[in-house]
Amino acid sequence: MHMEFASDNAAGAAPAVLDAVVRANGGYATAYGDDAITKQLERRFCELFERDVAVFLVGTGTSANALALAHLTPPWGAVLCHSEAHAMVHECGAPEFFGGGLRLVGVEGGGGKLQPEPVAVALERHFGLRPHQILPAALSLTQASEYGTVYRTDEIAALAALARDRGMAVHMDGARFGNAVARLGLTPADASWRAGVDILSFGATKGGALAAEAIVFFDPARAEAMAERRKRGGHLLSKHRFIAAQFEAFLADSLWLKLATHANGMADRLAAALTNAGIKPLWPVDANIVFVLLPHALHERLQIAGAHYYVTHTDRSDPANVPSGFVLARLVTSFATMESSVDNFIALLKPTQ
Ligand SMILES: Cc1ncc(COP(=O)(O)O)c(C=O)c1O
User: What does pTM read for this prediction?
Assistant: First the structure.
């Protein structure tokens, strides 16, 4: 029985993306991003975001975050992010490495989202005494968050205002930007720079590409020497047309939003059935991630039946502890999740009640 909820990266790539890669394979093209597909894509990004942007494609979300944060932050600077942010806990120190020693400062916040007050407290506590303390240089927020929640634009704007007051830049880790935009029903511009975001790590991989992430600068002047930073960081692809072709197909006809809408819908279906079975998701299911406390017996039954999902660490900020007799499960849907997969999973929920 097919029940794959481990990760959106467990899915393959969307056929339209693969077709675009095959199409791009014909003939020769100038290497290192000086090709027609990349040039066209750069214009497409400007249209999409309704302004001039500078775009740098890279192969992983970690490199997008790390290079972006390194660009915004001096080695004696700090990036404030959620204590469970991917950059904080799942990037093996890449932002600090590329940033020559910059420091990530984790701030707790309910539902995986930063809130202005704890950010303001962290800013008061850690910074201000020059030259003895590190300088706050950037605020990084993850949209959709690691908990599957989505910041509303007023929440982003409040955080951005706080950052702006301190002369800090605002970075958005948008590994699941599509899921967030699809849920919010906003334009990409409204969901990013108009809410106060300066730099976006725009992920396509989880959404349906093979491996394609974009670092988008909403102020191209800020991108000065980013080309060198990406090259030096080993992330300038020589056969660049293939990464550009993936994005071209991803953005064409709003494919990215259609795929994200499907993934979100599958998460909604899971969440509704779990709620009906008395297992309410721990946080609002705004995107394609559902966190639930599963009783051991049910967890075992699901495992035996072949359901794939991660049981996560028990130190997530809220709720602080997983009660005994339960596991904290993270279920992730994707553009490739089949309704039948969800329904197989749902059918297994019933006997425990
Ligand atoms: C929130 C978030 N940011 C970034 C990434 C990108 O990671 P990777 O380097 O694996 O592409 C991930 C992947 O799990 C993620 O969940």
Answer: 0.96
pLDDT, residue 313, reads 63
Bond prior to 136 in cis (omega within 30° of 0): no
d(CA 63, ligand 1 centre) in Å: 9
Residue 80 CB coordination number (10 Å): 28
pLDDT in tens, 256-290: 999 999 999 999 999 999 999 999 999 999 999 99
Q: What is the pLDDT of residues 152-177, one digit of tens each?
A: 999 999 999 999 999 999 999 999 99
Sheet strands (E) in 8-92: 54-58, 77-82
Sign of torsion over alpha carbons 146, 149, 152, 157: negative
Q: How confident is the model over 131-154, as pLDDT tens digits?
A: 999 999 999 999 999 999 999 999
Cβ neighbours, 10 Å, residue 111? 19
Cβ neighbours around 146 below 10 Å, total = 23
Q: What's at 109, amino acid-wise? A: G
Nearest to 145 by CA among 107, 99, 187: 107
Determine which residue's CA is closest to atom 4 belonging to ligand 1. 61
Alpha-carbon distance of 211 to 213, in angstroms, equals 7
Residues with CB under 6 A from ligand 1: 60-62, 65, 86, 142, 146, 173, 175, 205
For residue 312, report the distance from its CA to the centre of ligand 1, in Å.
16
CA distances from 212 to 66, 191, 221, 271 (A): 15, 20, 23, 29
- The pick from 7, 62, 312 for probing ligand 1's pocket by mutation, whose C-beta has the most ligand atoms within 8 angstroms, reads 62
Provide the pLDDT for residue 174. Answer: 98
CA 112 to mean position of chain CA atoms: 12
| Beta bridge partner(s), residue 217 | 54, 199
